[in-house]
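Hello again, I could really use a second opinion on something today. I've dropped the whole record in just underneath, so have a look.
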Amino acid sequence: MVISDDHGGLVSAVQKAFQGATWQRCQAHFLRNVHDRLPKALKSEGTEQVKAILYAPNLEVARTLLNAFLKDYQDKAPKVTELVEDAFDDVTAVLPLPEPYRRRLRTTNGMERLNEEFRRRERVIRIFPNRQSVIRLMGSVLMEKDEKWIEGRHYLKMEDYFEWGQTAKIT
C-alpha cells in the first residue's frame, strides 16, 4: 500500500513503479480539500459528514454514508459532492484492513513526521560538505527509527497483519 496526496506525478509514479500496489489518498489532505471547497455556512457540518465516511467501520457503511452525503449536498455544494464521489475509492482503500492498520495508513503523517526529523537535523548542520554526508545523516535517522520499532514501540505489528491475512483468506 502506498499513501500519498493526490499529486498527479506521484500517483502516476506509484502506478508505474509499484504495479499491483494499493494507493491510498491521504485522508488529512483530502479533508482539507473538502473543507476548502465547502461554502462557509456548511464547512463544519459538511466536514463532519465526510469524516464519518472516512471513519466508517467498513466499505458498505462508508458507501451508505457517501450516498446520504451526496443526496444532502448535491444542490448545496455540487463541486464538493463531485470531489467526494470521485475520490471515494482512493480515500477508503484502507477500510478492508484491520482497525489498527487503518489508523496508521489513512494519512501520510508517519512519512511527514520522518521528513520533519530530517529537516530538524539538517538545520543544525546547515551546510553539508558532500552528498555522502547527507546520506549518512538520513541513514542514521532511519536506523534510529528502526531501533525504536525493533525495541518495542512498533508503528505496525506485522505479525498481527499476517495473522489477519490468513483468516481473511479463509472466510
User: Anything to note?
Assistant: The chain has two domains: 2-97, 109-170. The longest helix spans residues 131-150. Residues 2-97 form one domain.
